[in-house]
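Sharing a chain and its predicted structure for anyone who wants a worked example. Both blocks are below, sequence first, tokens second.
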Amino acid sequence: MFSALTARRRFRDLSEQEILALAISSEEDDARIYRTLAEKLRAAYPASAAIFDGMAEEEDSHRQALIALHRIRFGEVIPLIRREHVAGFYARRPIWLTGNLSLARIRDEAREMERQAGAFYSRAAARTTDAATRKLLGDLARAESGHESRAGDLRDSVTAGDEGQGEEHRARRQFILTWVQPGLAGLMDGSVSTLAPIFATAFATQDTHTTLLVGLAASVGAGISMGFTEATHDDGVISGRGSPIKRGIASGVMTTLGGLGHALPYLIPDFRTATTIAVAVVFLELWAIAWIQNRFMETPFLRAVFQVVVGGALVFAAGVLIGAG
């Protein structure tokens, strides 16, 4: 590993030919990234895909201009030098990671790409003594800065028309289907379904340690069950609900947290204090669920309160009655 690090060149040690070669390979990589992003977005977000197509074509034109200049100054053979060969040089996110990025995050990635490219060309121009080369690199620095503004304004330009508004709506809908809906279902299940066993145990034994163990078992077991159920019952291809792994994680984690919220207070040895805090946590959990339903699922708030709070209160009462019986 040490030898690999020491083999990297420092930017200030590059020759003008190597700087041009680095610029050529960087433009080629960026064009490929933009085209990959465009293909990823084309089906669901065609307006955004078209903008990335245009940015890829401009990167191609930059590469061609750089190659033409290299041919004039240094001939046909371009040295093989890439970003990873230069110590401290900016790196690009591996393109396969973009499969997990939201539309908004992809836009931010594009803006950062252009900012880094503009900074590189400014540094490269300052290192160059040839007038033609310096002029081209300076022009490219200004062009990349223009791209940065374009990438930063991508959201506004895409959302200006009906098609863009449709993209924003689809992005929000996909977020809700993939993360909010399974997470909310898990939170409801974890918060409500564990009420009866936890409080039945609490009032039957009045032992905080036993209640804690039952709460942990119920919460973790429910989280595993809900996570696997969500991940395996729908692959998301036909329903359009997104990655089953993401949905499974959202559902499993939120189910576990929903149960742990009123189980962890029983870490407190005093039964009365622990139970009082657990009841308060239950109240907060149920109101949080009602708020999420109203905020993301557009359920009328009073209906959400009735469904969640009243239902949760009935399950809580059942647990208390069973435990005290």
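Comments welcome. The first helix runs from residue 2 to 6.
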